Amino acid sequence: MTVLYEDNHLMIVSKRSGEIVQGAKTGDEPLSETVKHYIKEKYNKPGAVFLGVVHRLDRPVSGLVVFARTSKALARLNKMFAEGQVHKTYWAIVEVGSEKFDMRDERMLEHWLVRNEKQNKSYAYDHEVPHSKLARLRCRQIASSDHYNLLEVQLMTGRHHQIRCQLSAIGCPIKGDLKYGARRSNPDGNISLLARHIEFEHPVSHELISIDAPLPDDSLWNYFSKVL
Questions:
Q1: Are 76 and 89 in contact (CB under 8 A)?
Q2: pLDDT tens, residue by residue, 182-195
Q3: For residues 160 and 84, is the Cβ–Cβ distance under 8 A?
Q4: Is the full-model pTM beyond 0.85?
Q5: Long-range contacts made by residues 176-182, C-beta under 8 angstroms, separation at least 24?
Q6: HEC states along 156-199?
Q7: pLDDT of 157-169, one tens digit each?
């Protein structure tokens, strides 16, 4: 766990791929508990530590996660996320596929997504179908290699596996994401999707918070880092 920002009301940490944000049936210690241990030890806090989970990232995704350290911050952050006042940017390494991106243009993707609970997977349609929810995102290509493109993605809605599902639907699955059509897995089982940047007004002090996550340490991310 890498702490990128902390004060009396909130913490922002960089999650590693493979970590879970909140408790799950697997029994693995979630990131929320790791953060609680960190707070308890650093500030020598007696008793239970309050920590509010504001949002989540899928287990194979890395990047920025915000936690609330007070009930006041939790309530205000929940409202801010619900009203779209928190701006998140993702970076995704995708296989070069059927959709051709122009480096100069931002694209809007719009699909209707249906979530299959048993499969823990969403399916994309280009028209409304029963039980579907509208999903929108903006994306643009910011770098490329022989076999992969690096896309910058901004969510306009918050649907289950939205980025993974929508990019797959246009023939550009995220590198390593076998569930959504990638040709092969990544060595560590992760997917090449990073919650790269977050920006919002601090819920208590009202200062501007603007944080970037470090890039994962592997050869392709390192290549794109040098290109950029």
A1: no
A2: 999 999 999 999 99
A3: no
A4: yes
A5: 176/60, 177/60, 179/121, 180/121, 182/95
A6: CCCCCCHHHHHHHHCCCCECCCHHHCCCCCCCCCCCCEEEEEEE
A7: 999 999 999 999 9
